[in-house]
């Protein structure tokens, strides 16, 4: 009888201890869960925070912001033209900064050529957007968005210096690489012969500018 009572007491004790352990484990799990807040995502665009539009970096971020805000139609030709308008205006702004702050006369001449030449390109692109009768077909989906994503990624890794001329070479190389990438996608996906001719001209001129700028890279 004593043995039975002993065994019964032992079983009850073990059950209570086991329940207590489970309760403590659950409480600890709840506490741990409560202590870790759910993930939050900052959707604010901080890309231009603290950056003046009169700096190379600030001008690039301002350009990217306008490109991302452009209303896409799904027609590759129209969308390319809209993005390239903002991109070309960005080149004008970068060149204005070089003209205002740069010291190298040869680089300033490169900038002057860009300021003189890009407005005509912008005007042609604007005219295209206003007059082009699209095909109504959706083609090249996501290609231009990938170009913008690549440009933004490279921009995030940009490190400028205190030397305007050096920074102009660095930033314009990055800018022209983006132009070549988008223009080549227009050549591959576009349906307008007129715009594809403009895209080829953008590729040729961007490559020429890169070669000219490379002479000043040290």
What does it look like?
The protein is an all-alpha fold. The chain is built from 7 helices and no strands. The protein has helices at 2-35, 56-69, 76-101, 105-131, 143-156, 164-189, 193-214. Helix 3 (76-101) runs antiparallel to helix 6 (164-189), helix 4 packs antiparallel against helix 7 (193-214) and helix 5 runs antiparallel to helix 6. The longest helix has 34 residues, at 2-35. It is globular, with a radius of gyration of 30 Å. The N and C termini lie far apart (98 Å).
Question: What's the layout of helices and strands?
Answer:
Elements: H1 2-35, H2 56-69, H3 76-101, H4 105-131, H5 143-156, H6 164-189, H7 193-214
Helix pairs in contact: 2-3, 2-5, 3-4, 3-6, 4-7, 5-6, 6-7
Shape: globular
Strand proportion, as a percent range, falls in: under 5%
Radius of gyration: 30 Å
- Regions with pLDDT < 50 over 5+ consecutive residues? 1-47
Structural class: mainly alpha
Distance between the termini: 98 Å
Q: Describe the biggest sheet?
A: none
Number of helices: 7
Which features does this protein show?
218 residues; mainly alpha; 0% strand; globular
Care to give the gist of this entry?
This protein is about 75% helix and about 0% strand. It has helices spanning about 1-35, 55-70, 75-100, 105-130, 145-155, 165-190, 195-215.
């Amino acid at each position: 009888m004593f043995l039975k009572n002993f065994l019964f007491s032992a079983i009850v004790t073990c059950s209570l201890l086991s329940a207590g352990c489970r309760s403590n484990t659950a409480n600890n799990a709840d506490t741990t869960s409560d202590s870790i807040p759910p993930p939050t995502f900052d959707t604010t665009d901080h890309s231009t925070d603290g950056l003046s539009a009169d700096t190379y970096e600030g001008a690039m971020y301002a350009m990217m912001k306008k490109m991302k805000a452009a209303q896409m139609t799904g027609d590759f030709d129209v969308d390319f033209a809209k993005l390239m308008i903002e991109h070309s205006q960005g080149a004008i702004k970068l060149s204005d900064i070089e003209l205002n702050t740069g010291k190298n006369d040869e680089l300033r001449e490169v900038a002057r050529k860009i300021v003189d030449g890009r407005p005509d390109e912008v005007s042609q692109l604007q005219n295209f957007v206003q007059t082009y009768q699209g095909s109504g077909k959706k083609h090249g989906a996501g290609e231009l968005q990938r170009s913008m994503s690549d440009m933004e990624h490279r921009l995030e890794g940009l490190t400028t210096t205190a030397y305007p001329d050096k920074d102009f070479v660095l930033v314009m190389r990055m800018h022209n690489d983006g132009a070549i990438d988008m223009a080549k996608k227009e050549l591959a996906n576009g349906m307008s012969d007129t715009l594809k001719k403009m895209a080829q001209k953008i590729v040729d001129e961007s490559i020429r500018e890169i070669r000219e700028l490379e002479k000043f890279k040290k």
